[in-house]
Structures are given as structure tokens and as C-alpha cells.
Amino acid sequence: MNDDAGETQQHLAGDARVDPVTASIIYGALENIAVEMGFKLMRMSYSSIIRESEDFGAALCDERGRQLCECKKSTPLQSGPIPGYVRGILKQLEARGQRFQPGDVVIHNDAYNGASHSPDIGFCVPVFHQGELVGFSMTTAHHLDIGSCEPGSVGISNCADAYAEGLQFKALKVYEQGRRNDTVWQLIRDNVRVPDLIIGDMEAQIAACHIGARRFVALIERFGLEAMRNASEDLFDYSERLMRAQIEKIPDGVYTATGYVDGYLDNPDPSLKHLPVCVTVTVQGSELHVDLTGTAAQVEGHAINMPFIGTVDVAIWLTLRSILLDTEVHGDIPQNHGLYRPVHISAPAGCLANPTFPVPTMARVSPGNILADTLMHALAPVLPEQVCAGIANLKALGFSGLRGGQHWVHIEIFEGSYGGRHGKDGMDSVDTLYANTRNNPIEDIETHVPLRVNRYELRDDACAAGRWRGGISVVKEMEFLADGAVSAEGDGHSHAPWGFAGGSDGVTSRLVLKRRSGEEIDLPSMLQTRPARIGDRYIAIGGSGGGYGNPMDRVPARVLDDYLDGYITRAEAQDKYGVVITGGSELDATATDTLRRGAADARSRTATGRGA
Questions:
Q1: Contacts with 15 (C-beta within 8 Å, 6 or more apart), sequence order
Q2: If I label 607, which of 53, 356, 399, 558 is the partner at 20 to 30 A Cα–Cα?
Q3: How confident is the model at residue 434 (pLDDT cuts 50, 70, 90)?
Q4: Alpha-carbon distance 299 to 306, whole Å?
């Protein structure tokens, strides 16, 4: 899937095109431009999904659509796809005989031409210098509603095809040479449920793009276009060398793992649930190939399918970047096109990870996380100190209704958690892998929409045991203060996160409806829009990541801390960790040592076949 195979070895060992100091300065300036774009977008946005959750992306690309930098304030699932957006836009404009002009602004959300999925709408501003196209300034953001067959833009998981998912923008010019296309803007306003929020967020995206374009031109004028392009090529090569050096450290070989997507657990059709995601990683020298053959077939009429470009590629890139070039170990490195030259991805056409148009893709976030998690699982045996155990997936709920004759829509992202990792416990209650959005403050929710947050607390007694324990998630209860509707997309109800190196498997998640009558109903992880009544409470119970390493090797003082923090019970401390805690909540070192020695002896006898 790499467009630059011919560049793979070019200049890797050659002389730099510009001096390293200049390249470093340009790199820092590019990064700061992207960060400024992100901050401006966040500050100017109307909806909480962008303003508070930071579900947006910002990046600069060169004139060929190669990423120069991205906003580190944004989520990888938004910034990562931007080069694909740009290439998709260029492809569609060329097919129509159009080209970019100064003053143009293009809107794009075509999931089969680079977009991550249709609610992640991109705005692209071409950057010209002295009449020459030199690059693109682009932002993406998740929008609350795009006029789909059901309210909102999460949980639209059962729909006939891509047309039912809402408005499709295929490289349309909303500004042409500086002139606003009022017809397109009116079309958008007339076909979304919360037009003031949507239009306001879109205008914020465009403003952030213009800021990026102006800063990019100023940088070119400072250093000159030739120096800018040469520095960009050097930075691409530098990032590529870093990635290749880490791939070369992996023993040549083939590594596999299979994960499972819940799918539609309430559907009697077995082909719609427990969907396998198969990952085969082949490492040869400094080249790495990820093949997804064996993955479930695409699901017709259900939006759980993942766009190959925009979701699948980003999930794989982000996971490899996290494992092989951890910033804590390697420091800050250029996040650009060069990182992915050594990485090749394939998936059979018509599978869950490479669907064919017009199969719907809106609910692709949780399957993408399963893909990323499974890739990590495949590499765990050869990179045990660079991975975490299995992650507990996130869940997103869409709340909507009418108030005073006007629609309201709110998207709430419920955090997951990470598995334990070498030397560290799993992170609690965070977005995982390729999503790193923030939670919404309770005050913001209750100020803007008729919802009340009754509970928001860490989950008790659901901590996966390990030398480094799995992360835990939260319990969050949301109550409707008026009649409305709810939908959900998530995963992790049927498959526990995997434990690693002797660690315990994690804990599955749940979604519960509690009616005013007190009746409680377990709901599936994928929930089509359904009516909600005043007083209905939706309780999301997050899963827990897997444990890492033998629990009997955990430092006893840390087990005591876990008990005092309410993560585990006294009985769990003794049964799972071999740690004895007295009635006064103190560590009994002697009893602990005796218990652990007995457990070690029992394991030794079992291993040598001398007893159970």
C-alpha cells in the first residue's frame, strides 16, 4: 500500500540535503504549526466532542500528500488518516478535471477515498507560494450528526449501506478561489439535526486550516522553498532510518495472533458475532509486512466494517510506532511520512478490514482497536518488554432528543484501560491505542443537554492479576432528564483482554439499562438507536486490561497498596498473589513468604511431572 516504494532506499546512507541544524529548526517549526492549529480548533469549536474530548486532527502535508507533521494534541485516529484524505481529494478532483486554486477550501469525508469514517469530516486548504502549490493544511473532526438514518453519529451500526450513514462529501469546494459556495453550506444546514453546532465546528476547522497555511508560507519565506523541501526529505529519511533500525532488531520470522470483535451479540445470526481479526506479521530485515488474511468477511448492512485506508492502516501504524519507537525511550521524533515506508499492509478485498463500497463503515472504531490489540499480541513473544497485555476496549454512546422543537445530540466516550506492561501496571480509565480522546467534564454535560451523571467512579474488584496488574476502568451512569434516544458502539462484552507471561486475563465490560421501575436489562455492546424515557439510566461498566507476569512475583507492598486502594479484596490478595494481609490491614511478611514458597514448590512439581 506504500505509494513511495521507489523511495524506500533512496538517500538512506547518503549525505543530508541541508545542514542538520536547519533541518531541526524546520522540524520544530512544523510541529509547532500543527500544535497551534489544534489548539485554535479546540478553542473555537462549539461541540464538546471537539472542545472537550479533543476528537480532532490537524496536520500539514506536502504537495504530494505526504505528511510533514501532525498535532500531538489530537488523537492519532484523526491526524493519522490525513495523508489519505489528501490523496483521496487529489484523486477525485483529478477524475473530475478539477484542480486546486488559491482560496479554495475542500470538504471531504469519503470513507472509500481516505477518510477514517464519514462523521470524521476533513477540511483541506491548499498552500500556495508565489503561485506554486507547495502543500496542504488540513483538519479533521468528529461531528455530532451528519444526517444519517438515525440521530447522532455513533451507534449507527445497522444501516443498509454508506448512503444511509449520512451526507457524503467527496472533495467538494465549499470555497472556490475565495468565494463561499452558499448552496453547499445551505445543503449541509438543511440536512443535519444540530446545524448551529455542526456549521460552527466546520467554520472552526477552516479557520484552523488557514492559520496553518499562513504559518507554513511564513516558514517557507524564512528559509526558502528549496531548503524547506530538502529539509522535509531529510526528515522523511531520518524517520525511516529510525523505524528500519527497530524493525531490524526483531528476529526474522512470521508472528500471528487472532482477536475477536463482539459484533452483534443480540442477533441470532452467528455470522454477525464473534468476528475474527487475524494478523500475520512477517519480518525480513528492515521490512515488515502485516497481512490480515483470515479476517472475517465484511458485514453487509452493518457499519462495523473498517476502511482499509483511514482506519486499518492507521491502527497498524500507530501500534508499530508505539511499540518500536516509544517516545519515553527514543525521545521526540518526526511524525511524518518516512516512518511508514518500511511497513506494508495487505487484506483481502471484501473482508472486515478491507470492505468494498457501499458497505457501511461508521461504527469502525472498536474493531480497529481490536486490530491494534491483536497486532500487539502477535508481536508480544518477540518484543515482551515493549508491549502491554490485552486492552479493555472503549465504548461510545450517542444521546439525542428534542427540546423546544430543536434537536440535541451528545456523544459520550467511555474509557477503557490498558493491560500491564513490563515494569509498570496498566493505565486506568483511559482511551486506548489509536484513540486518546478525553472525557467530558460532568459540568459541561449537565449544562448543555438534558442528562444527569449519577455515578462516575473506578470499578471495584475487577483488577486482572499479574506481576504488573491490568488497568481498571470506570462505572458511569447517565440519566435521561427528558424523553430521547440512545445508541451505542463498543466491544469487549464477550471476550476478556488477554493476559501475558503468566498474568490473568482481564475482565469484560457491560452496558446496563436501569428503568425507573428498578428493572435492569443487560444490553449488547452494539446498540441500534432506541427510544429512552425520562428517568432511564444507562450504566456503562468498563472492562479491565490483562495482567502481565506471574502474580506471585508482584512486590508484596504493592499488593497491599492495591488492597488499601480497593482494587482487590483481602481474599484475592492471598489467593492470586500469595500475600497475607492481617485484620489490621498490614502485611504479614512471614505468612506471605511461606505461602509463596509453597506455591512455587507446587508449580515446580507440576512442571517436572511429580505431582499436581
A1: none
A2: 558
A3: confident
A4: 10
